[in-house]
Protein 1
Amino acid sequence: MTRKRTNPDFLNGVPELLILHLLSGRAMYGYELVQAIRLATNETLEFGEGCIYPILHRLQADGLLASRRETVGGRNRVVYRITPGGVRRLKESVALWRRVAGAIQGALQGVTDAGPAVA
Amino acid sequence: MRGRLWLEALERELIQRRLPRQEVARLVAELSDHLADEMDSRSSGGPSAVQDTASIDSPFDLTEEQMSMQKSIAVRLGSPADIAETAAQEFRRRKTLLSRSWLAAFCTFVLLPLPALLLGWLAAFQAARLVCYTCEWVYSGEGPVRGITPLRVFGVNVLLVILVVAPATTFAAIFGRLAKKTAHRWRWGLVACFLVAMATAVVTTTATFSDTPGKDQIHFSIPLYGSARYWKSLFWKSLANPTRLGQILLPLGVGVLILRRSAGGAIQPATCQALSSR
């Protein structure tokens, strides 16, 4: 079986951030959420779709998500929705992400403008 | 690889990693739904056709094209080993019972602080008593009988304040730290720190000095009950007395400081083995 390339360290925290963000818009079931991630990221992120479920279960255990079996499209599915705790965590995560992204952007900009500090 | 075989391989991998049976069943069920959705989406252009995974996997119905499609689906979902590894990591990362149970949080942050603080004070005073006895024994028979000097009175009073405040501050820090690790951090942590601070404020300590060695006395008291008027008067007295005010503010301040410091660590590392960027 073909194994996908992995880079867990570089993208730590990204799945959690994306899941919380997308579920803050509306409740979704797993498959729907995976498609939403693909669409939202313009398929820039490649991931084994099955990995989303353990993360969803952990977020639920931590009280950030709630789930319920519902009938959607004629089939019984586990639908996930964000909790007030999840909304709070999302706000914190977004603020931190923006800070980190801004800092990296600034650093890259500095290198581009002034050239590398070390030859 | 057909869907059912893939799911069986995943189940084996999950069991090998000693995940609870309930968690294994839930993951397999959800991934089975996911497979069915993907098959529906590919075969009919949308997840409308209801088709369970058993029918998908029927070896007699599969054409070569369908088998190739299912193989690509399995690749898209990730290898069973990768998913099982992620599941095991995520399961280990789940917060303790304290994060999930309101009752556990109530017992820990509302019922536990005061008994824990009492034990802390008991230990602190016993340790101080041990030190005093040791000093008495070491210096017995040496020099003249001690007098009640202002320095001695001041030193003992400072020691008493330290004996009251140090355990309280330590416990406020412990409960703040504990609350930081749970999803209920501010609410419960603040309650615990407030209880510790209030208990510290109502503690009364007095020292009675004697010229005779070994006859000094220390009184430590906590009012356990009283009228509303009594508590009200005690509260206002505490605010007017700088030492008592310090006894309230120090544990409360340390607890709040620890709780505030937790606000920065919002993004938790969420390892997804099969996640990568192009």
Protein 2
Amino acid sequence: MFMDGGRGLLDQETAKPKNLSDTFKRFAVYFHKYWFAVVMTFVLLFAGVWATVELPYVTEQAVDCYIVPNIQSCTYTTVPAEWTNPATAIEGEALGQRLAGVGTLTLVGVGLLVVNSVLVGIAFYTMRYAGQNVIRELQRALFHQIHRLSLGYYSRNEAGDIMSRVTNDIDTLQQTFGFALLQVLSSIISVVWIIIVMLQRNWQFALLSLSIVPVMLVTTFYFSSQARKAFRRARAEIGSVNANLQESIAGAREVQAFNREEETIAQFTTSNDANRAANVRAALYTSALSPVLEALGYVSLGIVVVVGGLGLLGQLPFIDKATLSIGLVIAFIQYSQRASQPIAQIALLWANVQSGIAGGERIFSLLDEKADVVDLPGAKVMPPIKGDISFEHVSAEYTPGEKVLNDVTFEAKAGQMIAFVGPTGAGKTTVINLIPRFYDVTEGAVKIDGIDVRSVTLDSLRRQIGIVLQDTYLFSTTVMENIRYGRLNATDEEVIAAARMVEAHPFIERLSEGYQTVLGERGGGLSQGQRQLIAIARVALMNPNILILDEATSSVDTRTERMIQAAFEKLLKGRTSFVIAHRLSTIRNADQVYLLKDGQIVEHGTHNELIAKQGAYYDLYMSQFKQQEEVTTVETVNAASLPALGD
Amino acid sequence: MQAAVSPGRGSARPVKAPRRSSPLVRAIGYLRNQRRSTIIALTALLIATIVQLLVPQLIQNMFIHIGEGYRADALLSIQPDFARQAALLLAGENVDNLVTTRNVASQLLVNSAVIVVVVAIFRGVFAFIQTYMAENTSQGLAFDFRNAIFTKISRLSFSYYDRNQTGQLMIRATSDVENLRLFIAQGLLGAVQAFLLLTLTLIILFVTNARLALVVVAILPLTFILFAVFGSLARPLFAEVQKRVSALNTILQENVAGIKVVRAFVREREESRRFYAAADGVYEQQLKLGRTFSVLFPTIFFIAQVGSILILGAASDPIMRGELTLGDYQSFSLYLTLLFIPLGQLGFIVSLLAQASASAERIFEILDAESDVKEKADAIELAEVAGDVTFRNVTFRYFNSGDAVLKNVSFSARAGQTIALLGSTGSGKTTVINLIPRFYDVSEGSITVDGHDIRDLTIDSLRGHIGIVLQETNLFSGTIRDNIAFGRPDASDEEVMEAAKAAAAHDFIMSFPEGYNTAVGERGSTLSGGQKQRIAIARALLLKPNILILDDSTSAVDFATESRIQKALDTLMKGRTSFVIAQRISTVRNADMIIVLDKGEVVATGTHEHLMEESAIYAEIFNSQLVGDAAPEKQEA
């Protein structure tokens, strides 16, 4: 079954479950619905194992009753005494009877095999049926949870981490429920049953025949755990090979621009070599596992035959000759073969079952993660937003005790454009994240048209707010569908109209397939500016009541930005908008500018008021021009800009 | 394509004409480098297989001894005495001889058992050598392939990266190589072993007893057919499961990575519907696979076992007639299990083979890829550069097809000048600067540096004179120092520090506890956008390049930082031929020449004063920034 010596199974990330009984209880809840399939699986497995355990007995009876008749050990039928005399030739009627007897038993054997195959086949399906249903329910629950979890969770955990946890753990469960668990169960049942049967038949012979089993168990567990350890080291190496590769492909432009090809190749070869060495070291154990098991299997075969043979000849003091027969020796050969195969399987698959349980544990812990931003009981539907927004003594923190915003109070009147400026980490993005309730405030309140955002449903609130984020996320589908994400029932014409409005149409048209161009991972293939334009078109199509732009035009050239602004001014007539920008051309038109620093509002007013005040904003603003002056000795700059600043 | 194009590049495609042998055969050819371990593995395989075939023979011997002893013992055990004597007489034996026979049989039985143990150990050792050396061989092969792929992709031109996503290239260097490795380690040797075992076992079976062997031979073709059916049924089912699982994961991926967008647009319900549908798809396919397997597995299991039972029925007649011993039967049924092992292996190998040949094809696709940008055989080493850069009627199309991204662009930059490129998003600014270090080659026209066509120069010497700060900063894992010294790993600490100071990066670097030895995470994730940018500037500055290219995007930084960066850039540009893509008007104003691009064409060139009078587009761009940057009154005007 495992022609690679189980290498594939050993080279898997394995983890030991921490809280076994809790996880079992959780799984039991999920499996409870499919109890019938689970019970069926067990019943079928037991019946199937019974059929195979009976097989050696059938062979034994064929030998002891007909081929080499033995009155004592033939229990299937009564053996005529004359058949037992080895000196008598077998012929005539006796031969016919004896051949017919063997024939019947052969058919019984085939019948038992058929029964076993059918039962195990059905058990395989019932197990899979229950398993797949549980997996599907877990998937749904996980997906639901992904949408419920607060954004805080996503900022604490990397997206890639969450993803790989979800997909890998589900994958492990898939293997466990689809195959490994059933194999382990049926192997355990077989081994235990066979050992019991052997002991019942002849305990002295059984103990000697089974003497190799503990050795097998110990070697298997030893080699597989050593191999796993070696593979864990190898995985770290392959991880560094992959990181190296990833980095060099992603940074290929820099590598070439700086003529660093030779060095990177040399570096890669080194880590590649380390990876090879680690894998070869791991192979030392995996390569040993199946030859050792096979050799032990042959040794056990030898032991059964020699012990059985000597016993038959009355040469062993502790085995009564009368309790043995040639048929029993042949049956024991089959028993011991049937017992040693499952032992290897249990050892190889056991870790997979463990990983499955550990995977389940991680899935449950993700499901248990508390979602803090949820509809409160009795949340109402947000009426159409007019656009008065107020922050009342708002504080917010991502990690308890570390305030990102501290007592922020401001008010925006309907139709105003509000700009937030300030250094990185001042809390600008946090402020705007609170408006659509991506996070909840820890103190104070955010109110829209006098209604606390926490008292309305998230759906009704967010549907009215259009937001373009700093890090534009595009889906790997067509440009058309990416824009349509803003309003799913929009027609193609409406999508194009939105793209035209935000000046995205000209470049989209020049893409190889126009609006039908499929974007790669994370919108790859487009420049940062182009990605931003698509994200802006998406919001334009949505036609929101409140618009939030978080550095949304940072990579768009100023002329296009002007045109976008003009378009939004028309679109959002009388609606409120919030802008985070570092570019002055964006900020200057704002009705109010708030300068944030360390989570607090330091200054606010219109651009001109703030300049006149000659405070922090003025300093920030001037710093650009001061240094420009140093480089620029052209008077026109002074003429064009400085007087305006002085106003 | 024009005449000046290097011969290597021009003739690259036609040369490909002669058909190469199949990718898998080519891949196997790489075993040349692993000759020693391959030969050891094959030798060990041969010995291990032959030794393995001895085991049933030895067991048979043991049964022969048991049979002899048993007969003697049975005769000696007959009660009462007169009956025993009659039987002895009938069989022509006497008591002494029988006792000796029984004792000799016991002794021989023990001896044979010892031989079995010795043979088992012997077989184990060689099986181990075989597996271990096969693993060694395949790891060596994978090592060679990964190196070859890496070397190749390090040298491919940018257009290759435009066409191929990082993820896809990664898969080729990792899972495709692994597939190939598995095939070499298990498939190739496994096939040799399977055929060897199959042939030898069949020969032994026929020699032992042709009649019984015929029973087995009758089952064989049936097994082959079943494995073929199994393969052809299971493969498309598996492929479909894989397809559906990856569709499901894509939705998951999008929802995790784009969670903010999903929430902002309140698309949870639609996304859930999409996900549920995909999950149902996986579920149904898994059950379908389950149904197929629940028929196929038991059938195969049945076939593999039924032989040993049927053999009992078929052997009983010759045994009772005395034509066959029980030992023969026992060894026969042991050989039978040896016969079914290779059959299972072959089924497995066929699936490995299909996978490996697809993987080999993908790997050779990379290894055979021709770089669009090639060095001429007689390329000149450019020792010194003054910095004159001239574009002559340059037209550029990506992949040499589709719409021209640049059309007929001509301009000339004197050494030491600052050239500003201006234009809207997608107008071709970045393309212009990508052509100078030959990240791409022009489709038509030419670019010269100090009068040399850049295609006549060695790529290393050309790029060695160019310092570049790209739009999206990419840092490498390692320390900050390593990153700054990326272009010149031999630079002294003083030089690195000097470059960092000039790039306004020294202060923030020193604010880290580890200073210049601070590790930069994967893709520089521990640094802010502005900090990364300044490190990239320091990196370019350290090269002391004569030509400087700044695809200046300060989008990621707040404006206090931006002004610091700006200052650093201005210092950097002094005395060098600089190409700047700038959003800032002050940089543009000071430029010696401003090139205004629109839809890939140069619509105006000249100094600021000149353009303000001559170019409507320039004036418009200038005003859009000026309005923002300086004069609110003008908005109303």
